[in-house]
Amino acid sequence: MTERSPGSPGRLPALAPGVILFGWSAFAFGLLGQLASRSSEFGESSMLRLAALAPTLLGPVAMIALFVLGWRTRRAWWPALERRLEAHSRALDAIPAERLGPWILLASGAGLFAELMMIRVHASCFQLFALFKNVSLLSCFLGLGIGYARSDRGPATTPLVLPAIALQIALLHSLRLFGIGDFLRNPIAEQAAMGFATVGDVAQALTVYGFLIAVFSINALCFVPLGQTASRLMSRCERLPAYGWNLIGSLAGIAAFSVLSFAWTPPPVWVLALAAALLPILRSRGERLFSAVAVAGLVVLLSLSVQPTATDFYSPYQILTLHHATAGSTSLSVNDAYFQRLLDLRPAAVGRNRLLRSWSNYYAIPYRVKPEPDNVLVVGAGTGNDVAAALRHGAHHVDAVEIDPAIVAIGRAEHPEAPYASPRVTAIVDDARSYVRGSHSQYDVIVFGLLDSHTLLAGLTNVRLDSYVYTVEALREARARLAPGGVLSLSFSLLTPELAHKLYLMLEQAFDGTPPRAALSYYDRSVTFLAGAGVPADRALPEGLVDVSANVGDPSLRVDLSTDDWPFLYMAHRVYPRTYAVVIAALLAVSLMLIRALLPDAASRLSPPCFFLGAGFMLLETKSITELALLFGTTWVVVSAVIASILVLGFFGNALVGCIRQPRRGALYALLIASLAVSWRAAGLELSALPRDLARLLFTVTLTFPLFFAGMAFSAEVEAGAGLPGALSANLLGAMLGGFLEYNSMVLGFSALWGFALGAYALAAATSLRTR
C-alpha cells in the first residue's frame, strides 16, 4: 500500500471551482452585452426579446448557479463522497501486484482515448475549437499532468470521470443547440477565418475569452482523475515496466479511436467505448451504476434530433451537417459553418433563374478559356459541383480528389446531378497536395475548388487541413501537372484584399513571373484566378468574364507569401499574433492557478529534466507531424500513424534502457542533440534525385530518430530516480510549454521549431547534469 499524505488532501480547494466560475461569469456578461447590442433584431416587444434571449442565457446562468450551490452546500455532500472514494481507493490498492500491468494498460488507454475524444467533441460543438484545437489538447495535458502527480494525494477519483465528462459534453451539446456558436468570434485579429468573424468589441472579447477559460478549466478537471488513477496503479510497480505498460495502453487508445474514426461513428459511440474501458476499473456495483446512468443519460441526449431537416455525419476529420431546405436545395456545413450547396445547374433546372444562372456561369469559367478538355483534375472536389461542371462542359475524363471520405459519400448519395456516378469520373479520397505530387498524369484543366477545410490538421499543430494546398511550392507542383496549353483555375472566397493579392502573387511566382488573370465569380464572394499557357495574356478574357486582375494585383498592398515553411494563407503578414499572446497568457494563468490549487508542492514533486524533455518532445512531435504530413499527405491516417510510431519508438527506447541498466544520461543527451541536428539539416535537403519510396524512408527515419533518443532519455531519468508519477506529470506539463512555444511558428516559420526543440533538450541535459 502506498502511504498517503496526512490531512484531507482530497478536498477540492476553492481556487479550482473559482476559476471555472470566473470563466462562466465573463462568458455570461459578454453574451449579455452582445445580446443587448443586438436586441433590435428581436422587435419592439420586451416580452418577445426576453423570450428570444432566455434560451441563450440559460446555459451559462445555470452553470454559475450550479457551481455556487455546489460550493455552498459542500459540507453536506463532500464527506459522503470522500468515503466512497476512499473505499474505491482501497479496492484499487487491493489489486495484486502481479496483475497490475493490464490495469495500467486499461487506465492509460482510456486516458488517451478520452483526450482524442474530447478534442473531437469540442471541435464538433463549436467552430472556435475546430480552428484552435490546441486549447482542447493543452487542457487535457494539464489535467493528466496534475493527476499523475497526485497519485498519493487523497483518494482515487476514478468514479467521477464518466459523470464529469458526461456533464461537460451535455453542457456543450446543449449550448450548441441554443445557438451560442453564433456569438463566438475569432479571437485572433491577425488571422482571418472563413465563415468566422473576428472579435470586434469588449462584449465579444469577454464572451470568447470567458468561454475558453471555462471550457479549458472544466476539461482539465475532468482529466485529473484519469491521470491520478493510472499513476496510482503505476506507483506500485517497477518504474520502467510500468512505463512500458503505459505506452502500450496509449497505443491501444489511439488504435481504438482510429478504428471508430474509420467507421465514421458519432459521439454516443465514443462515449460508450470510453465507458467500456473505465467501468472495469470501478470496483463496486454502486460506482458502476452511477457512471452507467450518467453515460446512458448523455447517450439519450446526444441521440435526440432537434433539427428535423438536418442530418449530422462524423467523418474522421469533422462534423458534417446536411441541411435539406423546404425549397428543395441542399447545403452542407462543416463544424457548424456553411461549406457548400449541392447544386443542380443543368440547363433545364437553371431555366430563367438569375441566381442559378450566375452560379452556373461561375462554374463555367475554366471552360470558357479551355473548352471541352480531355483530362480535368479537380482538387477539393467536395460533394461534386466542380465535377458536374466539368462533365457539363464536355470533359472526357475527370479525376476528383477530396480528402474527406464522408463528403464524397454525401455527394454520391445526395448530389442532384450525380457526378460521381459518371463513368468519366474517378473519385480519389486523398490529400490534394499528396496526390498532385505523386501523380504523373497531365491535365488540360486543373480546378482548385472553393477549398476551405474549416478545421486544423490535428490537435498537435496550428496548421490547417488545407494549408499545404495553398503554398508557392504546391502551386508549382500543380503547374507541373498541366499539359501543354493547359489552364489552372483557382477560386477563393476573398475575405480581405490582402488575401486576394497574396494568391495573385503566389500564382505569379509559381508560374515564373507570369501574372495570372482574375475574373469576378459572383459566387460566395469569390474570385477565380486563371494561370497557365492556355490563358490569354495580352488580350481580353472571353466575353462575359469581368476582369479584375488590376484590382487583385494592386502593388500598393503588402503581403507575405505562403510557403511550405510558413503555410499560413489566412495571415497577410509574418507577424507574431499579439492577440494570440492574450489567449496564451489567459490559459497560462488558469493553468498556474489550477496547479497551485491542486498541486501546491509542484516544485518539489516535478522533475525539471522531464519537464524540458516534455517541451522538446511536443515541439519535435509537432514538427514531425507537419513534415511527414507534407511528405505523405495531411490525412488523418498519416497523423494517427505518426503518433502511433512515436509511441512505439518510446516503448523500444524504454525497453532498451531497461536492458542497459543505468545508462549514462550524458551520452543519451549527446546522441539526442546530435540526431536532432542531423534531422534539422536533413529537413532542408532536396531528395528528389532519389527514388520516391527510398527518399520517403530515409526522410522518415532521419526525422523520427531523435524521438527514439528522447524516449530513452526520459526512461533514463525515471530509472535514475525521478519517480514515474512526477516524471510523467512534469513531461505533460512541459508539453504544455511546447504547445505554447509552437505558436512562434506563425512569425518565424516551422523551421524555427527545430531551434526551440534543441533549446528545450539542452535545458533538459543541463538540469539533468545539475541534479545528478
Description:
The chain is an alpha/beta fold and 772 residues long. The chain contains 29 helices and 13 strands. The strands form three sheets. It has a seven-stranded mixed sheet with strand order 7-6-5-8-11-13-12, with helices on both faces. It has a four-stranded antiparallel sheet with strand order 1-2-3-4, with helices on one face. Helix 6 packs parallel to helix 8 and helix 23 packs across helix 24. The longest helix has 33 residues. It is globular. The N terminus is likely disordered.
Amino- and carboxy-terminal Cα gap? 29 Å
Oligomer: single chain
Helix content: 55-70%
Structural class: alpha/beta
Brief account:
The chain is α/β, with parallel strands linked by helices and 772 residues long. Helices cover 60% and strands 9% of the residues. The strands form three sheets. A seven-stranded mixed beta sheet has the order 7-6-5-8-11-13-12, with helices on both faces.
Characteristic key phrases:
alpha/beta; 772 residues; 60% helix; disordered N terminus; 9% strand; seven-stranded mixed beta sheet; 13 strands; 29 helices; four-stranded antiparallel beta sheet
Describe the secondary structure blueprint for this structure.
Elements lengths: L14 H23 L8 H27 L1 H20 L6 H26 L1 H5 L1 H17 L11 H17 L24 H33 L4 H24 L4 H12 L6 H19 L6 E5 L4 E6 L5 E5 L2 E6 L4 H4 L3 H10 L1 H5 L5 E5 L5 H8 L4 E6 L2 H10 L10 E5 L2 H7 L4 E6 L7 E3 L2 E4 L7 H9 L1 E12 L3 H14 L6 E4 L5 E6 L17 H4 L25 H21 L3 H4 L2 H25 L3 H25 L4 H19 L8 H31 L1 H18 L3 H4 L3 H19 L2
Parallel strand pairs: 5-6, 5-8, 6-7, 8-11
Antiparallel strand pairs: 1-2, 2-3, 3-4, 9-10, 11-13, 12-13
Helix pairs in contact: 1-2, 1-8, 4-6, 4-7, 4-8, 4-9, 4-10, 6-8, 6-21, 6-27, 7-8, 7-11, 8-21, 9-24, 10-11, 18-19, 23-24, 23-26, 23-27, 23-29, 24-26, 25-26, 25-29
